[in-house]
What we know:
This protein is 25% helix and 33% strand. By secondary structure, the chain is α/β, with parallel strands linked by helices. The strands form 4 sheets. Strands 4-3-2-5-6-8-9 form a 7-stranded mixed beta sheet. A 6-stranded mixed beta sheet has the order 12-13-14-17-16-15. The radius of gyration is 22 Å and the shape is elongated.
Amino acid sequence: MDKKIEIDISEDIIVFGSGTVAAKCIDYLRGVFKGTIYVFEIKHNNISILQKHVSNLHNVKYSYMGNDIEDKISKINCKLIFSISNIYIFKKEIIKNHVIINYHNALLPKHKGRFAEAWAIYSQDKVTGITWHIVSEDIDCGDIIYQSEILLDDKFTALTLLMLQSKLAINSFKSIVNDILKNKAIKVYEQKNIEKFGEIHYSWEKPNKGYLDLNWDGDKISAFLRAMDYGVLKMLGEPYLRLDSMVFSWRNYSIESCKCELKKNQVVYDKFSNCILINKENMCIKLLDIQRKDR
Length: 295
């Protein structure tokens, strides 16, 4: 059932987030909102795309989060918070005193938590997407503001899916902000089947703990490889394979739908070409530029 949430935008706005999506959303917000924008980021290193971007924007105040974050928020005249690519878990008092709008890169209630794009691919979902929702005390369970679907195929990697989701997030953010500025209210609706999709993916979790299982069929191996594939970002770290009491990782891979010279389900470690060949059904999978690991 649809309902409306009234939003007070007469004061300032806070944004929690990191990365390019948050930066571009703040850039748009700065162009249409007159008040001060306070930006908070959990900073992992000295290089911050978000900090570099917002430092050039007028009346945008950036700081990275410390143990005093709740005290800082209490001193800002703000009723609206945007959470964009943000891993901070809001305390009950902040949720109680603010409308918090969070971006999540999946179709909630599926794949709550971190690295949702990878889990959607690994789970061999046919459809995924993006969600903007109201933050509640239960993680990623709040009322839905906006969702957009993406049809998945066997070409998507975690990186290419993340890039597409990012574009959708920025465009939909603009529409949400325009609705708030125009109407001072937004329509929301409750999530359905939350109990059915109760699992939350945590930051330390990886598909199958990061290991390729040779007992999988070809489609599952393909899903695993693509789910772990963030390109040079390596957001889930290296994938691994146990073979003949040895552990390998690889820097690249190929998946070809063709007949292979190997026997069905045969796996060969080719030392000459430094690759591992896997034959599954009519699928030839190659793990390229492999490295032996001591694990």
